Amino acid sequence: MLISTLRKRLNNISISGRLYLLISLMGLVVIIGYGALFFFDKSSFRIGVALFSCVLILILGFALLKCIKSAFDSSPLRQTVAEEEIAGLLEQQSLSLQLAEEKIIRERAKREASEKAKQIFLVNISHEIRTPMNGILGFAKFMEESLIDEEHRESLQMIIKSADQLMAILNDILDFSRLESGDINFVDQPFALEDTVRSIYRLMEPAAKLKGLNFDYVIPESIPLVLSGDAVRLGQVLLNLTSNAIKFTEKGDIKISLALVEALEDRVTIEFRVKDTGIGIPADKHQKVFDFFEQVTNDTSRRYAGTGLGLSIVKRLVELQNGEVFLDSVVGVGSEFYFRLPFRTVNDQISFETMDLRSKLPDTVTETGKGVRILVVEDNPINQLLVIKLLEKRGYDTTVAENGRIALEEYKNGDFDIILMDLQMPELDGYETTRIIRKMAGDKGDIPIVAMTAHTIKGELEKCADIGMNDYISKPFDSAELYQKIEMLVGSTAGG
């Protein structure tokens, strides 16, 4: 039992440890043997001790030689075993990492597929909603101009207002989806700043008048007339803030004001302020109102409705353009939202060209469409009827084609000055129809084509331009915008 225990313990000692132990024991035996020879007088005892020491030294020497041999023989084997063990561990770790990586890739692919499915769903639902909304808003506005009875006119205006609110909600949802997925881009091109601000003012002025609010805007002369940036996104931010100000203000004033914050050689920073005398926002809610789906209180949400997305979209749009958003507000006194955006400056030549082009665009459509021949390519019967009524009211000569194949036959056999082209149609869509027309010989291939679509996905305008379309109008469209685009493209080329 003692020997087996001792053997187990020795086996647990490393080879170098065993060598040191054997050498130490041999040294100890030698010392004891020499001590016995020197300190004991009896010769028989000294002889016995000497013999015992010699035998013990021989045994220890044999054990030492065996241990040394074992060390030389087993060291490569142990090293090989150790290397194999390390290689096994590394292989196991590599396999674990590979499995983890594959899992991450699968999860990422699953998430991307889910995101893509969500985007496709939103695009499709947007298209399906916008198509009937084009008919609702179009016919309502068409009837509004011809109604004489004030009560009927007021009822129709409520229908239009409700439809506009529905479109605002739809646009908020789409903008939220794009911002969440990062599927949003910004353009950098020259624009007249006053035009952008004035367009928002004109758009929101009727809503302000309806509530009896004083509404105005101020642009100081120190701000350059023409800047380079994204005028559409700027208008979207101003529209959201102005719409909010009117919504939450029952009496008093709404004011849009601009100020030059910083002016460098190649860029300027402009501050835009939208001030109201509305219900105000508590101090502890100032940051919360910029979060998605947040409104100040549940009572506010019930009373004023809305998605709770407007201000969060404003914040994201401004920050994505390297700007900042601020808020000053006192409950019962009013709120002032303001943001700062950088814009590139332009040279005098570009500024002159931009202002010159602006002066050629009519504020109101006064020209008639008599003698202008239009081919309307639209598969939806309601939208067909709406476009025909709007165009005929203006004096245009119209021909309707239900799809691209019929449109090509009509176009080959007739003379037209412009084509209004729906994009999503059965048999032959607007994209392919446009490609075929652009390949036609002579003047036939150069006719102006305006895309009319309910799709609002990123890149749609660029796609239309790439295949040869001249302009783009999204549904639901405004009749004045439609007339203006037609007149800009047709000009003096219309037939008599």
TrEMBL record:
<dbReference type="InterPro" id="IPR036097">
    <property type="entry name" value="HisK_dim/P_sf"/>
</dbReference>
<keyword id="KW-0472">Membrane</keyword>
<protein>
    <recommendedName>
        <fullName>histidine kinase</fullName>
        <ecNumber>2.7.13.3</ecNumber>
    </recommendedName>
</protein>
<dbReference type="InterPro" id="IPR036890">
    <property type="entry name" value="HATPase_C_sf"/>
</dbReference>
<feature type="domain" description="Response regulatory">
    <location>
        <begin position="373"/>
        <end position="490"/>
    </location>
</feature>
<dbReference type="InterPro" id="IPR011006">
    <property type="entry name" value="CheY-like_superfamily"/>
</dbReference>
<dbReference type="Pfam" id="PF02518">
    <property type="entry name" value="HATPase_c"/>
</dbReference>
<dbReference type="InterPro" id="IPR004358">
    <property type="entry name" value="Sig_transdc_His_kin-like_C"/>
</dbReference>
<dbReference type="InterPro" id="IPR005467">
    <property type="entry name" value="His_kinase_dom"/>
</dbReference>
<dbReference type="InterPro" id="IPR003661">
    <property type="entry name" value="HisK_dim/P_dom"/>
</dbReference>
<keyword id="KW-0902">Two-component regulatory system</keyword>
<dbReference type="GO" id="GO:0000155">
    <property type="term" value="F:phosphorelay sensor kinase activity"/>
</dbReference>
<keyword id="KW-1133">Transmembrane helix</keyword>
<feature type="transmembrane region" description="Helical">
    <location>
        <begin position="20"/>
        <end position="39"/>
    </location>
</feature>
<dbReference type="InterPro" id="IPR001789">
    <property type="entry name" value="Sig_transdc_resp-reg_receiver"/>
</dbReference>
<dbReference type="Pfam" id="PF00512">
    <property type="entry name" value="HisKA"/>
</dbReference>
<dbReference type="Pfam" id="PF00072">
    <property type="entry name" value="Response_reg"/>
</dbReference>
<feature type="transmembrane region" description="Helical">
    <location>
        <begin position="45"/>
        <end position="65"/>
    </location>
</feature>
<feature type="domain" description="Histidine kinase">
    <location>
        <begin position="124"/>
        <end position="345"/>
    </location>
</feature>
<keyword id="KW-0418">Kinase</keyword>
<keyword id="KW-0812">Transmembrane</keyword>
<feature type="modified residue" description="4-aspartylphosphate">
    <location>
        <position position="422"/>
    </location>
</feature>
<dbReference type="InterPro" id="IPR003594">
    <property type="entry name" value="HATPase_dom"/>
</dbReference>
<keyword id="KW-0597">Phosphoprotein</keyword>
<keyword id="KW-0808">Transferase</keyword>
